[in-house]
């Protein structure tokens, strides 16, 4: 992302698809093949290591819960950056979502808490839009300022609102809110039990598929279902409607968009406010679904990780969902079974790196292929020489996985051309 440029490139023919210029879109059959290959690799790792939890329904359910707030934050980043605004402030907007969601949730209804969380995030998005779009403040500086302001705001008002009166009597404190009611979870009757019975047999691949599917149909929060719907809606709106075409043109070449009658300021404002709402919804998920309370610092950098997942996904919803799912899987794995399951993950990492090395060598990228092969060999030696992973390293696993995936995927990325650039109306005249 480019945040220091202060001018927009000369007018050119708008190019908003991102599907050319050396970038190859994955077809649906290819995506299915990749998913099947990943499941096959996980099944082999489970069979070899005996780490049965790697593909269990509980693991997948936990991974889904961990992935949703990251995916929603990344979705917020996608809306903003497709309109040409870098949103480093996603973390702060998530913090506002956790706070307002919990504040309204414990006093009224959790769904009203969800709405309050979205509104809190949208207020953060509005502030970012005013600073960057109207006043031309550097996008990175504005985003960091929002993160600091959101943290200070919630810290102050948590002490003011959660530490006195009824809130304190119901379990509130200067750093946490009283608990809120649960948001309804759904389970598909019959199918969930049938998949669980297959999973218990531990058959190669078949039980693993049953475990994965079982995690997707058992005790799924309605807010998780809403998040999945938002991914589909985002794809449809941004890539299948005239509104989406105009919004993306603002992120590719706002001068050309202006010459065609597009109100660039309006579309940027809409995109950044929606971006804040998505991040706020991710924050509300953390405080109303994951923990049922607001806790100071509970976002844990997920806004930044969502931004990383968006980059990994090449600024598209499908890739973003895969990136968020990967982080959620690694996070859930280290939380559920700690060192033993993470140790099994090392073997999977060896397989992935070896496959990547072979692919790079086939494409005659000898240096990258050699580096991947060396790393695979080092990880294999580590796996063979140990029985578990130290506790200190386990907690860092999701972040290391995120960095590794970004480093391996960063060569075929294409951000919107005017992303992070300052725009002024009439600039092309």
Description:
With 429 residues, the chain is mainly α. The chain contains 18 helices and two strands. The protein has helices spanning 28-49, 57-82, 90-107, 110-134, 139-161, 165-169, 191-199, 206-217, 222-240, 242-252, 254-259, 264-290, 302-312, 317-336, 339-362, 366-385, 391-394, 397-409; strands at residues 185-186, 220-221. A two-stranded antiparallel sheet has the order 1-2. Helix 3 (90-107) packs across helix 12 and helix 15 (339-362) packs antiparallel against helix 16.
Jot down its keywords.
2 strands; single chain; disordered N terminus; 429 residues; mainly alpha
User: Strand-residue fraction?
Assistant: under 5%
The chain-level mean pLDDT equals 87
Coarse morphology: globular
Q: What is the helical fraction, as a range of percent?
A: 55-70%
Q: What is the CA-CA span between the terminal residues?
A: 26 Å
Q: SSE order in H/E notation?
A: HHHHHHEHHEHHHHHHHHHH
Topology:
Layout: H1 28-49, H2 57-82, H3 90-107, H4 110-134, H5 139-161, H6 165-169, E1 185-186, H7 191-199, H8 206-217, E2 220-221, H9 222-240, H10 242-252, H11 254-259, H12 264-290, H13 302-312, H14 317-336, H15 339-362, H16 366-385, H17 391-394, H18 397-409
Task: Offer a concise description of the structure.
The chain is built from 18 helices and two strands. The chain has helices spanning 28-49, 57-82, 90-107, 110-134, 139-161, 165-169, 191-199, 206-217, 222-240, 242-252, 254-259, 264-290, 302-312, 317-336, 339-362, 366-385, 391-394, 397-409; strands at residues 185-186, 220-221.
């Amino acid at each position: 992302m480019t945040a220091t440029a202060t001018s927009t490139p000369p007018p050119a023919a708008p190019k908003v698809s991102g599907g050319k210029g050396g970038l190859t879109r994955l077809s649906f059959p290819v995506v299915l093949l990749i998913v099947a290959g990943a499941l096959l690799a996980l099944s082999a790792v489970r069979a070899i290591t005996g780490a049965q939890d790697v593909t269990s329904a509980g693991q997948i359910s936990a991974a889904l819960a961990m992935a949703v707030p990251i995916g929603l934050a990344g979705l917020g980043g996608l809306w903003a950056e497709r309109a040409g605004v870098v949103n480093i402030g996603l973390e702060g907007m998530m913090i506002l979502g956790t706070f307002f969601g919990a504040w309204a949730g414990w006093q009224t209804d959790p769904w009203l808490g969800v709405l309050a969380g979205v509104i809190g995030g949208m207020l953060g998005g509005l502030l970012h839009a005013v600073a960057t779009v109207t006043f031309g403040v550097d996008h990175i500086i504005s985003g960091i300022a929002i993160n600091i302001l959101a943290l200070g705001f919630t810290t102050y008002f948590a002490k003011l609102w959660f530490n006195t009166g009824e809130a304190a009597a119901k379990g509130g404190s200067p750093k946490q809110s009283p608990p809120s009611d649960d948001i309804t979870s759904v389970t598909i009757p019959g199918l969930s039990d049938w998949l669980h019975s297959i999973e218990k047999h531990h058959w190669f691949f078949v039980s693993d598929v049953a475990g994965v599917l079982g995690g997707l149909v058992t005790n799924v929060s309605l807010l998780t279902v809403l998040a999945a719907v938002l991914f589909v809606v985002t794809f449809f709106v941004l890539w299948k409607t005239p509104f989406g075409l105009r919004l993306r043109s603002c992120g590719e070449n706002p001068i050309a968009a202006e010459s065609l009658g597009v109100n660039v300021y309006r579309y940027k404002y809409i995109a950044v406010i929606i971006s804040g709402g998505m991040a706020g919804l991710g924050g509300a998920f953390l405080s109303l679904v994951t923990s049922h309370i607001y806790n100071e610092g509970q976002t844990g950098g997920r806004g930044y990780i969502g931004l990383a997942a968006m980059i990994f996904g090449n600024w598209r919803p499908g890739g973003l969902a895969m990136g968020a799912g990967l982080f959620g899987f690694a996070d859930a794995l280290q939380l559920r079974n700690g060192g033993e399951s993470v140790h099994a993950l090392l073997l999977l990492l060896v397989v992935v790196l070896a496959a990547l090395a072979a692919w790079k060598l086939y494409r005659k990228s000898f240096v990258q292929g050699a580096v991947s092969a060396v790393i695979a060999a080092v990880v294999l030696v580590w796996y063979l020489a140990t029985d578990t992973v130290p506790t200190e390293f386990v907690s860092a696993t999701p972040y290391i996985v995120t960095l590794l995936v970004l480093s391996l995927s960063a060569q075929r990325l294409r951000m919107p051309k005017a992303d992070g650039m300052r725009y002024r109306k009439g600039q092309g005249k």
